[in-house]
Every structure is written in structure tokens, then in C-alpha cells.
């Protein structure tokens, strides 16, 4: 079957997601967190109202979990009929003063606490850490290779705990920038310079301090890319693909923000083929400065056609991203486009 035929077939399947029993296999979700006076039950209800099947709740931190204590909120997603992709981090802090997570030093204690967390939340997928190639979120050693080795030990331990409970396990998420860059570089390595240039024109706008397509199209082979440019651009992404292939994960988790549905399809294809594993995303969305509601539905369709399962939309207001909801809980235009796709409405 041709790519076009597969895409059309997948789009028809997406349309059916809002009808009858197909909803049980809905691969879409939202990353939607409580704010203000909200609680997780309200968040779960809003997510369910969008028509999704998955929720990414706030990360759970090993160093802040009280083993054996009750967790009333942990059952709220299941009560709403949602599957959970749960991010568990060993430590760190995402607010000022920001600090990255680090690898556990006592693996037995880590296993015991993680077991307690999984017993309470009962997620369908365990996500280990967040953007393991991004030092803002994860730093275990002095060098990228030391970070990766330490993360590998943590990931192996965490997956063994998850698998013992029948829970799927994945990495924290290859960062969006690295996912785009490694896809471009892989195309160059395959000798497809024109394809790589075309990808760069769609994927790299030069905004937010990133590279421009004009610069990247000058490189005709992977050997042409200067070492400093490669290091800054790939952000260890090329190491990560080989790492994911050997890791005991059930799928590769990637993060991606952008406007172009074809770019997302290209990235998913490269990551799946390089790792030999299916692809998921617990962080898919649009940059604030590049957001267009009309791109939401094509992106969701592309994710489905490319086999990105689950595909969880980033619906949180930050300086660089936008929620599907207004402050008062009403849907923004992007949210209405998202909900229309979930329901199958034109």
C-alpha cells in the first residue's frame, strides 16, 4: 500500500475514533495539569470531555513520594475512563530555582518507591524521567556519555519494575529539537541531500535562536557538517537512537512541537526505523509563536498515520506553549479544532 493510501486509510480511522467501540482504542491524549483551585478530577473530566483516551498527569517524584500513604487522586483518571502515561522522575525541580533530575544511587530503595508509585497510580505506560538528553531536565554525570550510562541503569531498573506489573515502559522523551535535527542528519547520512534540504525548509524556521534552513541546506553530506554545529544541533540525538534500540523499552517516546504535519511523519519514520521500535509521544504540540489552530487537525492525523501511539497533546500555558483551554475553562480555537477531530466532525 502506498504512503498516500495508508495516510487516507489512517485518516478515516481517526474520524471513527469518536464513534462507538473504536473509542476504546483511542490513541490520543492530553497533558493537562491542575492549576489554581482545580483538582485532578476536574482535569480528568475536561480531558474526557475532549474525547481523548489518555492523560499525562503531573510528574511524580521519587524523592517526594511517601510510600504506603494513600493517594486519593491517583484513581481519578481511571475513574474518568482514561489511560495514564505516568512520568516518574528521581528528583529535580522545574521551577525557580530550577534543577535537573539525577540518577538514583540506591537502586533497591528506588525500586521499592517506584513499585509503591505504580501500585497507586496503575498507569498503562511508565515514562522514566523527562527529556533525558536535555541537561535542563536530567544530568547524571559530567559528560553526555556518563549521563547516558547512568540513565541507562535507571531505565533498565525502572522497566524491570514496570514489566513485573504488566506495565509498558518508555524513555522520558527525546527532545523536540533533537528529534528534528537527528531526522535531518539521518537523511544526509543516507545520501538524500535534497530530501534533507526539503525537510530543513519545513522543520527549521530559525526562530527562538535555532538554525535556519538556508544554513542547513549548504551541507550536502553528513561529513560536511562541522563538529561544533553537529554537537549544538543534534543535542546527543544520534547517540540516543542507538541507545533506544538496545534499551529494554517497549516504544520510543519523542517530543515534538511544530506546524508541519509532514515533518512529524518524517521524524516518526526515522526514529522507528533507527530504533526498531514503535513510537509514542507524551508531548506533542505547537510553539506559542508558531501556533495556528488550522494546523491542529492535520498534526493529529499525521500522528495517527505515522503510528504514534499514544499521541498526547501538550495543553499547558507556558512562555513557549499554549493550552487548548482559556483561563475560564472554555475551549480556545485550537481546543475546538482538537475536539472536532476527536469527534469526527468536519
Q: What topology emerges from the helices and strands here?
A:
Elements: H1 3-15, E1 28-31, H2 40-50, E2 54-56, E3 60-61, H3 76-79, E4 83-89, H4 107-121, E5 125-128, H5 144-164, E6 168-171, H6 176-189, H7 193-203, H8 213-216, H9 227-234, H10 237-246, E7 252-257, H11 261-275, E8 279-285, H12 296-305, E9 308-314, H13 333-343
Parallel strand pairs: 1-2, 1-9, 2-4, 3-4, 4-5, 5-6, 7-8, 8-9
Helix pairs in contact: 1-12, 4-5, 6-7, 6-11, 11-12
Signal peptide: 1-24
Protein name: Asl1-like glycosyl hydrolase catalytic domain-containing protein
Keywords: Signal
In short:
The chain is of the alpha/beta class and 346 residues long. It is 42% helix and 13% strand.
Amino acid at each position: 500500500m502506498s504512503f498516500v493510501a495508508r495516510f487516507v486509510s489512517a485518516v478515516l480511522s481517526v474520524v471513527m475514533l469518536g464513534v462507538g467501540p473504536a473509542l476504546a482504542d483511542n490513541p490520543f491524549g492530553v497533558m493537562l495539569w491542575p492549576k489554581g483551585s482545580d483538582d485532578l478530577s476536574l482535569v480528568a473530566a475536561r480531558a474526557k470531555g475532549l474525547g481523548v483516551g489518555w492523560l499525562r498527569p503531573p510528574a511524580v517524584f521519587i524523592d517526594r513520594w511517601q510510600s504506603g500513604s494513600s493517594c486519593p487522586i491517583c484513581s481519578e483518571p481511571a475513574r474518568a475512563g482514561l489511560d495514564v502515561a505516568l512520568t516518574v522522575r528521581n528528583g529535580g525541580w522545574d521551577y525557580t530555582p530550577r534543577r535537573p533530575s539525577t540518577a538514583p544511587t540506591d537502586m533497591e530503595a528506588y525500586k521499592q518507591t517506584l513499585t509503591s508509585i505504580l501500585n497507586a497510580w496503575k498507569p498503562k505506560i511508565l515514562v522514566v524521567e523527562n527529556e533525558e538528553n536535555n541537561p535542563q531536565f536530567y544530568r547524571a554525570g559530567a559528560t553526555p556519555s556518563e549521563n547516558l550510562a547512568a540513565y541507562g541503569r535507571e531505565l533498565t531498573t525502572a522497566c524491570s519494575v514496570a514489566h513485573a506489573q504488566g506495565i509498558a515502559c518508555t524513555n522520558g522523551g527525546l527532545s523536540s529539537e533533537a528529534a528534528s535535527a537527528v531526522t535531518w542528519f539521518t537523511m544526509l547520512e543516507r545520501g538524500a541531500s535534497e530530501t534533507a534540504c526539503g525537510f530543513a525548509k519545513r522543520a527549521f524556521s530559525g526562530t527562538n535562536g535555532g538554525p535556519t534552513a538556508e544554513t542547513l541546506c549548504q551541507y550536502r553530506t553528513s561529513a560536511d557538517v562541522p563538529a561544533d554545529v553537529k554537537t549544538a544541533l543534534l543535542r546527543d540525538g544520534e547517540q540516543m537512537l542507538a541507545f533506544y534500540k538496545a534499551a529494554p523499552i517497549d516504544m520510543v517516546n519523542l517530543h515534538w512541537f511544530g506546524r508541519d504535519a509532514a515533518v512529524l511523519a518524517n521524524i516518526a519514520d526515522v526514529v522507528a526505523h533507527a530504533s526498531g521500535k514503535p513510537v509514542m509521544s507524551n508531548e506533542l504540540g505547537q510553539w506559542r509563536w508558531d501556533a495556528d489552530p488550522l494546523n491542529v487537525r492535520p498534526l493529529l492525523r499525521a500522528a495517527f498515520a505515522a503510528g504514534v501511539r499514544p499521541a498526547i497533546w501538550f495543553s499547558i500555558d507556558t512562555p513557549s506553549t499554549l493550552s487548548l483551554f482559556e483561563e475560564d475553562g472554555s475551549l480556545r480555537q485550537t481546543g475546538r479544532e482538537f475536539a472536532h477531530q476527536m469527534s469526527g466532525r468536519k
